[in-house]
Amino acid sequence: MSCPYFLLYLLGLKNIVAMKRILFIIVFSVFATMTVEAQSITLNKKFGKVSKEEVEMLEYPLDTAASAVMLYDNSSIMIDLLGSGDFIKTVDRHMRIKILKESGLDWGDFELLRYVGTSSREDITNIEVITYNSDDGKIVDTKMDKDFVYEDEYSSNYRKVSFYAQDVKVGSVIEVKYKVRSTRYWEINDIYFQKSIPVNFSELEVRIPGMFAFHKKQRGAYHIDYTWDKESRALESYQYEVGVDKFTVVDIPAFKYENYIYYPDQYFSAVSYDIKSLNIPPSVYMEYSVTWDDVDASYRDSDIMTRFRSHCHFKDQMAALPMDGTDLQKIEAVVNIVKNNVEWNGNYDIMPDPLGQVVKARSGSNADINCLIAGCLREIGYKVELIMVKLRTSGHLVDIQPERRPYDTFIVGVVGGDGTCYYLDGGSKSGYINVLPSIFLVSHARLLRNDGAGMWIDLRRLSRNSSVMSVTTTLTDDLRLEGKAVTKHTGNRAYSIKSSYKEYSDDEEFIYDIESENSIDIDEITLEGMNEYSSSATVGYTFMKDLDVAGEYIYVNPFIEAFHSKDTFQSLEREYPLDFPFPYSLTYRCMFTLPEGYAVEQIPENTNFKFDPLGVSVRCITAVQGNGIQVVYNFSQNETFCEAIHYPDVRTLWQHMAQMYESMIVLKKL
Amino acid sequence: MKRIFFLVALVMSSLCHAQSSSLDAVIERYSASFTMTSSTSGTYKVNMRVQVLSKEASDVAIFSAYSDSFRSLSSFSGTLEAGGKVIKKYKTSDLKTISLAEGGITDAIVSYLSPVAPTPYTVEYTYEVDYKNGFISFPSFIPLSDPDVALSSASYILTVPCGTEIMSHSSMEPSMTRTAKTDIYEWKVSDVSGYVYEHMMPSVLEMVPYAYVAPRSFTYAGTTGFQTDWKEAGEWLYVLQKDALTLSDGFRSKVLALVDGLETDRQKIKVLYDFLRKNTRYVSIQLGIGGFKPFPAEMVMNSGFGDCKALSIYMQALLDVAGIHSEYLIVDTRRKDLMKDFYTVGQMNHAMLCVPMQKDTLWLECTNPRIPIGYRHDNIAGHEVVLIGESGGKKVRVPTYAESLSSSVERVDVILFDDGSAHCKGLRRLSLDQVEPYIGFADLSEKAKFSAIMGANSLNPVDFKIESIKDNFNAWVDLADGEEYVPQMQIDYCFGAFDYAKVSGDRIFMDLNPFAKQIHADRKSRVNDFVRSRKLFLRDEISVLLPDGYSIETMPSSSEISTQFGNLQTDVNLIDSEGEKRLVVSQTLTLLPGRYSKDEYDIYRAFAKDVSKSYSSRVVLKREVVEP
What we know:
heterodimer; A: alpha+beta; eight-stranded mixed sheet; 12 helices; 37 strands; 40% strand; B: alpha+beta; 38 strands; 41% strand
């Protein structure tokens, strides 16, 4: 999609950078009507009308490395009114897939899930699969035998329907169609036009009776053509209109997964439908969600708020808590009481379980633990707020587009004595007050109040995230580098090192990785705060490092650790924006004492530059001071989001920094 | 074949969780019993109690039980205790179920429970599994599989009708008691200290108690069989598949047309193997007896897909039509040696074919016909296999290759410029098992090719391009009988690197070998012996044309590091010819297979460090002073 900047103006939004980001992800309700450009492979869309050209095609011209190509993908979704007064949703799917390489043969395997819950159910019927192959210039079609349709249990509410196209080989064209009928008419799953293989031509028709209102959202970087029409329907004497949305896309490239994306789905070209209301005058009117106030109310009236406002479950331990100290000390003490009683089960949930059961089981989700913490904090007089969060791994929440069920979980907001608000999540093992896991660092978290309108909270800059490394070093008699390094991490930098440390089975493996990454030998290590509920962590060690020594020269790299790796961005190009975890700063200070009998021949050049798209500032100064050399390096990154257009520069920036960490001091024997 | 896979997979999966050397959990009790009530039915009962001391061992507290058409979980109860009291009771309705079908078809589901609580806590489970429809082996007994877990006591009581002959492969001998109607075997073990996970460690089965038990004659899914030796086990399997080779007359004619006019068996086999590759794909199907019985060749003919058994049978049928005799075989791809004196086909996890030739034998991998014909891939070379024929099963060992045939050589010609950038032209030559990761390389996306070639080095290339890919994957057909086929591959590529070297003042600093390798060696004192299963030969040849006006200030000298574990030979030469200075570096790392004592680990660690140091040596160039 070429970014429709005119919308920026139309919508009157001032924050251009933020809006660019939104528009990359989503264009809502304003579907342009344009003529569909011809797809690369022209085809007859009718089922069974596969052409000789399609069967004999050897490669997809727009992506010659493609293992397969979706020649045609058609979905038709329809909500129907039944004579019983119920609604039913029907999905008719028709796909035509061309297999181009052996690695694409799996595209002949199909798996669908169908819901088999007690209150509603889905059925998958009319499965037809035909494989077309070329045999000496003649097209041979093989219809899949019904024996190759299997159904097995998938989970308590779902069964898996699998089927396998017959006679699939490189060159085959596979044509598939099936029908899904579902009583879960209010749920329309997102429809993805883009896939992991290129898509030649894709169409979607959605027929929804006029008594329904849905929010429609379109996303992705590629143009989706949209038209709207209406049809008349009648059920006996009852006449009603059906709105028909038609989407068409051509030539969408295969989606390429990249690093530094929290939610790849948001970049796939797709549309989604979120039910808003059902209105059958004069008797039926069901409003789902229209405004954020409605959304707020739906959560406020749920068990989430009830349990969040539940009483304190650890009154005895709370009573023993000293009431002096700062807000931070008291909140920390409360969190420790709860965490000592209830283990996080690793899940981020939205709906807390009954808290009595959680306390008894001694384990729970972050939602359970947050409710327990809230109860305890309220017990000692704190005002506690419920803050709903859509995690970064679920996509970007857009404040001008209310969603019916937007959130994944919630955190606790605590108002301190001086009115300062603190934020915490009880499920994060490496977190602290105002130090949340990076997936929580969103621009729009929703503060829910019992007695008033909710408000948006920006969680992205709650803590100061920094690492400060101080190194003192000198040469040994056998010309090795010997020294001591201490790094203090705070905020989310501390979170990162703590999380990383917890992945190791023991200190020795943690040390091993520092040693091998930096080609040093570590003698003693001192770790502070790695397993504590705190905002900082310190890693200190004494080390030895081999040097390159030749004749009268000694070469010393003053960087004991490298803070950026050029491996991070190996790809030569990128299509999607970069989304870094959090802003942070680095400070590295190295004091190197010169050995006797040696003089400085060369020191690294000083560096000072900025990179605006990421708010990066880099400065490195090396200075000879008496019998020592001091290297001071500062790095800061203030922005976390960066458009793909800047990717080549980001890659180069990382290369520059990686090279800087290889700087050399050259000493010459006197 | 899938069934035993799970048991071994369980053991292997535990290895993925590196653990500390301290104790994370104690299995206080593991009491299992299996009572065979008839030739087709039985009840498996387990009571286990585990104290979890550290959250790293929370997996040990997970309950899981499989159900399929042969067995079903009939009862379950459990408790979670902490602080000396029961804090939660579990019942069947607390269990969750998931399907085991991932990209395939199976009727197996897993019921599981994954308790979480602050440590220490204790779980106790009591459950029963009803067996029906027969068994080719009894439930296996592996009470301890995770590292850093101790076992206080465990027992397995097997009760079978009096006179039922059994066979077992176990780490301890059972006691046997005979009553009027039953024979009762009991395996008991107590006070097992567990094991510590380490890289390159020997098989876990050397360290944990286990018992695999099976009846010598059995009923299974309506069939009966014997398994007192491989011959009998093979007879049963042969009966299951002997009718599977039939192909329709029309299709037989088509196959005959394919080989018509071809002079040699090699040509015919090659054509049919290519036909298999072009017309089939792998789909896992594990339904009922389908774990052992291949779907018939006709099914593959009609569908174009099958699992390893069906695809092998299909290929056998194709060869049969062409008049070429082949034998179906079963193999365990994870372990080279079959369990001693334990003749159940359940220990295998794969099927393929062998074709006896005049002077040698061709081993045909039918599940992935991309594997070059004539090559015994790494998961079967040296493995014991059982050939299945009309006269039953026959154990043979697939020949290995001479170690010297395996190699990976990287040759890079570098033109270095005075700003530290470089143009590089590379050639990767792979031989024998080293080609395996590159089978299908040509089909990869540009990005995947880039990662495969450049992923491991310290450069950040631009303008990367694959110039050619050559292999000899079709060469077997032209070899003479008895002549060894060795797969080889050659990939030519080129790229630019603006950061090949770092310029600082008058000097240019560059790595001696940007394609350097590292040998992993733990810092910790070694607990287990260590094992390298095969020889590794990695050679880098780098030739760097130095920029005009620069000369070498520092470069490492040629050296050799040699130990009982292998050696690294480094040759560094400066060639000054016709005004051009070229630095020529070659580094050859050879790691030797063997089992080494834990006492030798300190030497191994020092060797690893020396190798890393040698690889990461640096070259310094200095701008020559131009005389005024």
